[in-house]
Design goal:
alpha/beta; Ribosomal Protein L4, Chain: A; 34% helix
Length: 207
């Protein structure tokens, strides 16, 4: 069973935490990770790109010259696709890129992502992540105390506005909570700083 150190916000080790092996010690399934990240990115796409077809481009209602006798190729409109400022053939139109994947695959990918962080030694458990007021320097101090120097994802059990707003101005640092935790964010950030109660909630939901 994986075991990691338990820290407080001052960076002092106050104990150890035994992690559920089926979640934090699972075999890393790279295929599942790839599928879920691809799905996440597709679902983030707005799909609002659009081009105009020849029927939507302004102008071109009259035939530019007569059909025969000019020596030039026949043309029906100056807004046909081969003309400058003409319509676009087969261009993008607004569409929905979203698609779904099954829950079992999502769970496998999440366990793989969490296990990879534990294996890399980039999974830091903090007894309680909380600030009484919105103070960026308190989150900066916590990360410094924990010796986190790279991009970090701070995870709390429930959304904490003080923590979110305190971390907003720190470059390379993002916050999330258990209900919004996703594979993409776990893999995107080098280090994961998570509260002890969030770990317990993950084990309760995915065990």
């Amino acid at each position: 069973m994986p075991k990691v150190a338990l820290y407080n916000m001052e960076g002092k080790q106050i104990g150890d935490v035994e992690l559920n092996e089926s979640i934090f010690g699972a075999e890393v399934n790279t295929s599942a990770l790839h599928t879920i990240v691809k799905n996440y990115l597709a679902n983030q796409r707005q799909g609002t790109q659009s081009t105009k077809t020849r029927s939507e481009v302004r102008g071109g209602g009259i035939k530019p010259w007569r059909q025969k006798g000019t020596g030039r190729a026949r043309q029906g409109s100056i807004r046909a696709t081969q003309w400058i400022k003409g319509g676009i053939a087969l261009g993008p139109k607004p569409r929905d890129y979203r698609y779904s994947v099954n829950k079992k695959l999502k769970a496998i990918a999440l366990k793989s992502a969490l296990s990879s962080k534990v294996n890399e030694g980039a999974f830091i458990v903090v007894d309680d992540i909380a600030v009484d007021e919105i103070k960026t320097k308190k989150i900066v101090a916590m990360l410094k105390n924990l010796k986190v120097e790279s991009k970090a994802l701070i995870v709390t059990n429930e959304k904490n506005d003080n923590v979110v707003k305190s971390a907003n101005n720190i470059q390379g640092v993002a916050t999330t909570f258990m209900g919004s935790l996703n594979v993409y964010d776990i893999l995107k950030y080098d280090t994961m700083v998570i509260s002890k109660d969030a770990v317990s909630k993950i084990e309760e939901v995915y065990a």
